[in-house]
Amino acid sequence: MSPTVGILVGSDADLTSVEGCTDRLDGYGVEFEVEVRDVHTNPESVSEYAGTARARGLKVLICAAGMAAHLAGTVAARTDLPVIGIPLSAGTLGGFDALLATVQMPEGSPVATVAINGAANAAVLAAQILALSDSELAERLEG
Ligand SMILES: Nc1c(C(=O)O)ncn1[C@@H]1O[C@H](COP(=O)(O)O)[C@@H](O)[C@H]1O
């Protein structure tokens, strides 16, 4: 099956921070893909990913980044798919910078933001969204 959840992280160093998300999605039997895309060094690559996501069968996007975390907001500006943001603790401000950068989106481009390092809840939220049109997944979530 092709993935329904696309997970982007801003850096290779962030990959371990989304393991709580990928482990949960695995447990729910949800197919996902994980890619490293950095909007600061390669904004075109982030735009391309977000702009083609729906056509490639993705239904929910999850973006995790620390510090000046513009990744989720940029993705949200380029797609109508639901976007979940995971602010990561990194640098000197403990993730508060990433939290504000992720959550404070303008009207019309929401990012559903979980807690700092809240990777597991991002998976739960993504699965809940998918379960709206997938009764078998809904049953697995209840169980
Ligand atoms: N906030 C972003 C974005 C982005 O928003 O696209 N890309 C990387 N980063 C963050 O910068 C920090 C250092 O990244 P590097 O490891 O690439 O130097 C990480 O916390 C990453 O999430």
From TrEMBL:
Pathway per its UniProt entry is: Purine metabolism; IMP biosynthesis via de novo pathway; 5-amino-1-(5-phospho-D-ribosyl)imidazole-4-carboxylate from 5-amino-1-(5-phospho-D-ribosyl)imidazole (N5-CAIR route): step 2/2
Signal sequence bounds: none
> Which enzyme class?
isomerase
Is this entry keyworded Transport? no
Q: Which GO terms describe its molecular function?
A: 5-(carboxyamino)imidazole ribonucleotide mutase activity; lyase activity
EC number(s) from the headed UniProt entry: 5.4.99.18
Biological process terms from the Gene Ontology for this record are: 'de novo' IMP biosynthetic process
Q: What does this protein do?
A: Catalyzes the conversion of N5-carboxyaminoimidazole ribonucleotide (N5-CAIR) to 4-carboxy-5-aminoimidazole ribonucleotide (CAIR).
Record protein name field: N5-carboxyaminoimidazole ribonucleotide mutase
The scientific name of the source species is Rubrobacter tropicus
Q: Taxonomy-wise, where does this protein's organism fall, top ranks first? A: Bacteria, Bacillati, Actinomycetota, Rubrobacteria, Rubrobacterales
